[in-house]
Amino acid sequence: MSKYWSHITKRIEPYVPGEQPRSTSVIKLNTNENPYPPSPKVLDAIRQHINEDLKLYPSPTADDLKQAIAKYFNVNEKQVFVGNGSDEVLAFSFLAFFNPGRDILFPDITYSFYPVYANLYGLNYREISLTEDFTIPVEQFYDAPGGVIFPNPNAPTGIALTLESIERILKHNREKVVIVDEAYIDFGGDTAVSLIPKYENLLIIQTLSKSRSLAGMRIGFALGNEQLIEGLERIKNSFNSYTLDRLSLAAGKVAIEDVDYFNETREKIMATRERVAKELKNLSFHVLDSKANFLFIRHDTVPSKHIYEKLKEQGIYVRYFKKMRIDQFIRVTIGTETEMDSFIQAVKSIVQN
Amino acid sequence: MSKYWSHITKRIEPYVPGEQPRSTSVIKLNTNENPYPPSPKVLDAIRQHINEDLKLYPSPTADDLKQAIAKYFNVNEKQVFVGNGSDEVLAFSFLAFFNPGRDILFPDITYSFYPVYANLYGLNYREISLTEDFTIPVEQFYDAPGGVIFPNPNAPTGIALTLESIERILKHNREKVVIVDEAYIDFGGDTAVSLIPKYENLLIIQTLSKSRSLAGMRIGFALGNEQLIEGLERIKNSFNSYTLDRLSLAAGKVAIEDVDYFNETREKIMATRERVAKELKNLSFHVLDSKANFLFIRHDTVPSKHIYEKLKEQGIYVRYFKKMRIDQFIRVTIGTETEMDSFIQAVKSIVQN
Asked: ipTM, 2 decimals?
């Protein structure tokens, strides 16, 4: 604590991201990155932008990237907001749409950055307990005092809500913003984009970090009614005129446009996920039904913390959350086939000893 | 106005950056970019990082970049914070060190983003009038209720404070944070870095956008006492785990390390500035004494708005501020020798007609 810190700085409890080990020999299944490289077209596009124009500011409005996103989702360009990773887009959204004194609702087991944002801005929130089987109890999100946010699929469970459930939440919160955080939507869930014309209170947030293999470039975006997007622009333009650099703008555009590569890699990941889930079940793991690029698993007899530590000793990083109800689980990002073979082998030797 | 906007979203007045014309044929002297390209070593470093690792998150702690900055300034790595342009570092600083209800002091004529940040966070501020000759009245920054921020050199005047003046402001605000925004320090001012060991309330903010020709890559940083840096880290880690992407981290490191290129280009800019200032004086311009990469000028008889508009017609962009006391000036970024020759020719024909 320093006497120079503001009340806010003293109050907050910062988020702690998963480890980024420096060693390249580890198998990194701990931060839900994509195991496949970015599209070769994306790497080419970046190369083409390495020139003296880097001395100039990027476009403050990021029109080219917004246009590509709008075209892909068949929405209007004014329904698109872009930011420095979906984390920044989320941070802006909390400030843009939520007011202190009125509880925001989100699940008790979810992306652990949500309470951090709320604390940063002095916003109140209420955590809604997931059901016994770790699904979102839809009715409990009705008539939220301040607004709603949840990931679909949820993290770290990987379980997805149906569009019909999401629509019920939207219908019962017409006066409040409902944020659907679709960071993992491309691995099997149904995006809520089709609901935008019907629900002006719907904000969808996505990222290029997962399904487009661009975690290293920090590109996130939001889709929603023009009024909501304008609100985000107001906040962004009161914070930083240029949140995406020239190379991220170039990379993002081509990543969205290269649909074939995107489909090919995400399908590979989904296939690997199903294969690994089956093998884990054969090893007496309880495996939640995941529509994300990770699996949330618990062994019948061996404690998760033990598995987590033993795996780490062998250079395999997974994520363990020391938190009530989920401290018996580990979250395992889906890697390449080869990486998952090593993972399965390692896990087998741990649980069978 | 939308019913979905938070009170803050409704209240704020976003910052408006200088125009970024798409045409490449214009002479762009309006946003204080560097006319020289980034160091060739920087471009090489970026190229080397275009590979499949872009699928992985960047380092959340940005250690390599921090180390390079620490080494250059001969400070400890824990005295360095990095962010997505100095705008983001400024935005974090307002939140980290200032509290609502206590006036922050800054000059009335200064970087117009300061009141925007204050409004974003509901902070109070008092604008201190510059003296008749546009210098900062040092004594009026003593005993600031909430803290102090000013650019050195100031923008858009370009006038620098002496280190002795800065030290007086620091001495008279021991309990409050004093932020010295050194965005333009490398063009002739004296950095306050040497005062860090003596003043734990001093935060210095710099950018690679100007003197390192990297506006397109969004890299800013802060230097100060470890407590202040820790405060900034707390805010950043409650907002976005990874604010700099992999390519910006690589570019920033090499840009700081290539001291020869840095010195060569900034010296060229300073020489051009002095030459242009002299020629403008010969054309009956009043030219403020600039230690920045721009000149703030007023003609004896021809209105600035007219000059601004006529220049624009000829494809030469400068910046005009429609604001009391300075609406008789234009701000002209120092370009290459050739660009400034074109500028002088154009201005000559405007003021002599």
From this structure: 0.96
